[in-house]
Amino acid sequence: MSFFVSDAVAATGAPSQSSPYSLVVMLVVFGLIFYFMILRPQQKRAKVHKELMSSISKGDEVLTTGGLVGRVVKVADTGYISIALNDTNEVVIKRDFVAAVLPKGTMKAL
C-alpha cells in the first residue's frame, strides 16, 4: 500500500509508437505560423517605411520619431534632411528618423 507511487508508473506495457514524420510536420507548421505572424508583417512595414523615405521631398510636412513636427527645407543626397520647425529654427536629421509625412496645413493647425 503505497500512497506516493501512482499506478500509472507501475503499469507495464509497450510505449506508444508515433509516426516518425509527426515531429517534422509539427516543426513545419510552427515555422509557417512564425513566418505569417511575425516575419511577413515586419517585412511589409519595412517596405512601406522605405517607400516613405524615398518619397520625402522639399515642402513636405513631417513628423519625426522624436516627436518634432516641421517642414522639409532641404533634402541631401547623403541621407540627411533639413527641417524647419518654425521661422527661426532648423534641424538636420537623418532621413530614416521620419515617422510620417503629414498632410499639408498640419503645422498651421497646431
Describe the structure.
It is found in: Cell membrane. The chain crosses the membrane at residues 20-39. This protein has 110 residues and is of the alpha+beta class. The protein has two domains: 20-55; 57-108. The chain is built from three helices and five strands, in the order H-H-E-E-E-E-E-H. The protein has helices at 7-10, 22-54, 106-109; strands at 61-64, 69-75, 80-84, 90-94, 98-102. It has a five-stranded antiparallel sheet. A hairpin with a 4-residue loop joins strand 1 (61-64) and strand 2 (69-75). The N and C termini lie far apart (81 Å).
* Low-pLDDT windows of residues: none
| pLDDT averaged over residues | 86
* Helix-strand string: HHEEEEEH
Shape: elongated
Oligomer type: single chain
Cα radius of gyration in angstroms:
29 Å
Helix content: 25-40%
Quickly give the structural class: alpha+beta
Number of helices: 3
Largest sheet, in brief, is:
5 strands, antiparallel
User: What portion of the residues fall into strands of 2 or more residues?
Assistant: 15-25%
Q: How many structural domains are formed by the residues?
A: 2
> Could you tell me how far the N terminus lies from the C terminus, measured between alpha carbons in angstroms?
81 Å
How are strands sequenced across the largest beta sheet?
4-3-2-1-5
The counted number of beta strands is 5
